[in-house]
Design brief:
The protein has 18 helices and four strands. By secondary structure, the chain is mostly helical. The chain has a two-stranded antiparallel sheet with strand order 1-2.
Length: 448
């Protein structure tokens, strides 16, 4: 019996790590052997469901302990948010959409509970995200170098189109540059992934390794930063800076050990070289993307976002307490647009602002619960989390929330919702370790 349980526990850890590896994969699975409700689902749902199922079969290990310590203060509002989102189907303006989306959020909530109770080593998650940097980075650089998608839809790549029609392209005069998609559905998502993955490697700065291993790790970081820049995601760029600042702020805590100055210098110089080289290489496209040039395509992007912002404020004004129901905003905005003069030119979509999206769909009650959960979560991180790897991943979670001020994928897409909530779950699972690990522990790449 003990041997069988050990196998299930090992499978649980593998399934969880598979979820983190598949986050940037927009791959759907179609197979006759899958249950009907899962056919056509994202590939990431398979290990997510497996993780939840194995955790339940094992008897929900770690749950009682988590409910007895500080983690319960985050579990309770998170569970309340899941319940509130699921209940919103009863008053939703579009019940069918709310039912589907809220069920997905239930999956996110259960996976988060697994992570906070019995998540894997954060070092293992860092390694998986580093593997993702390499894998997604190679695809992304190749897409940009060839200026078209690679035709590997079998892996989940966005469908290629003639002359990149309908894809995210940056124009600078007569030049056109395809923003890389990797295997995600949009370059902004790819940029967010690289930002989170890079910050999760923060613990590497504390590792005492020989020079060639340090060089390999530095090379992965440099490559990831180049890919982050190459995404041309303004939200991811700004959020990454916020994540770095958040890590620096943690140095103000009493007793916090800082990385060696020499390693910090190498990282800082390498980062500045990457940013400088990127600026020189793509100068004209950066001016376009940042709105300094007069390229009309960027004006359209900004005007659309302003329009969705106005519609979200209308939804909040009309349904302030309960909201319009989770997953209803695209339908609500589409109805508003069709009733106005722009219905023929723009279709409904989510507002590109996470707080406004939560407020408009879940009302002031749901928004208050959502805000409370994150305030408690980061409060626990500040007071209890000392492991540099956990701090880095927490900064990555903050990156997704910060990028959410200009985008919505951390709320509307299963992949990044799992990264957002599951990432914080595994960080808080580490919260009971009140002391930072020793240098010898940090140099080990596999859990003890």
């Amino acid at each position: 019996m003990h041997f069988f349980r050990a196998i299930l526990q090992r499978l649980l850890q593998i399934a969880i790590l598979a979820v983190f590896f598949l986050i940037p994969w927009y791959l759907r699975v179609y197979s006759d052997w899958l249950p009907t409700f899962m056919s056509g689902a994202y590939a990431i749902t398979l290990p997510a469901y497996l993780s939840i199922g194995l955790w339940i079969i094992l008897g929900a290990p770690g749950l009682l302990k988590a409910l007895r310590d500080v983690r319960r203060w985050w579990i309770v509002p998170t569970a309340a948010l899941v319940v509130w989102a699921r209940l919103s189907v009863t008053w939703s303006l579009y019940p069918a959409s709310t039912l589907e989306v809220s069920q997905v959020f239930v999956t996110v909530g259960l996976f988060t509970l697994v992570m906070v109770c019995t998540g894997p080593s954060i070092r293992q998650i860092a390694i998986v995200l580093a593997m993702g940097i390499i894998f997604q980075g190679v695809i992304s650089v190749t897409q940009t170098a060839s200026n078209h998608l690679l035709g590997i839809e079998v892996l989940g790549e966005h469908a290629a189109t003639p002359d990149n029609l309908g894809l995210s392209v940056i124009a600078a005069g007569n030049e056109r540059l395809l923003r890389p998609y990797g295997l995600t559905n949009h370059p902004n998502m790819l940029g967010g992934y690289f930002a989170v993955a890079l910050l999760s490697l923060y613990g590497w700065l504390y590792s005492k390794l020989d020079r060639w291993r340090q060089a390999v790790r530095l090379s992965i970081g440099v490559f990831g930063l180049w890919c982050l820049c190459l995404s041309f995601s303004r939200g991811a760029w700004g959020a990454f800076v916020i994540g770095i600042i958040a890590i620096l702020i943690t140095w103000l805590r009493a007793g916090t050990e800082r990385p060696a100055r020499q390693r910090l210098a190498w990282v800082a110089v390498s980062g500045l070289c990457v940013v400088g080289l990127f600026g020189l290489t793509y100068h004209d496209f950066i001016l376009t993307r940042t709105g300094i040039s007069d390229e009309p395509s960027e004006y359209r992007s900004v005007s659309d976002r302003r329009m969705y912002t106005g519609i979200s404020l209308q939804a909040i004004y009309e349904y302030p307490v309960l909201g319009i129901g989770m997953g209803s905003f695209p339908w609500f905005s589409d109805a508003v647009l069709l009733a106005g003069p722009y219905g023929k030119y723009i279709r409904g979509d989510n507002v590109h602002n996470l707080p406004l999206l939560v407020f408009s769909e879940l009302g002031i009650i749901g928004f208050a619960i959502w805000l409370l959960a994150w305030c408690i979560g980061f409060g626990i991180v500040w007071h209890r989390v000392r492991d540099p790897f956990a701090i880095g991943l927490a900064a990555g979670v903050l990156v997704l929330l910060a990028a959410g001020m200009l985008d919505h994928y951390a709320y509307s897409l299963l992949h990044f919702a799992l990264l957002l909530w599951g990432g914080m779950g595994v960080v808080l699972g580490n919260a009971m370790k009140s002391q930072p690990p020793s240098a010898n522990e940090l140099s080990v790449t596999t859990p003890q």
